[in-house]
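Chapter review: from sequence to fold.
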Amino acid sequence: MELRHLRYFVAVVEEGSLTTAAERRLNTSQPSLSRQIRDLEYPVGAELLSRSVRGVELTAAGKAFLDHARLALMQRCRARSGTQGCATDNLLKRREC
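The token string follows.
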């Protein structure tokens, strides 16, 4: 599991769609993003997202994992910046904090 997987997961959840997250937030293709999410689900040992033609929804495991993913990303941002004032908005919109 890599931090980029967590960033991708959070972006998909917030956008509610793999396609929208791929195109608007992550500048990647939807198939590539889907593969990255599967690569995250494998070591977690659970399906995190329920996929449908209308978008994605968090599974019970995904709901439990989301807060931990956001916390890990925020801690990385704080460690990198050396401050406690890292904005979540900047963290999720940029490739790196």
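Two observations follow directly from the output. The longest strand covers residues 49-52. The radius of gyration is 13 Å.
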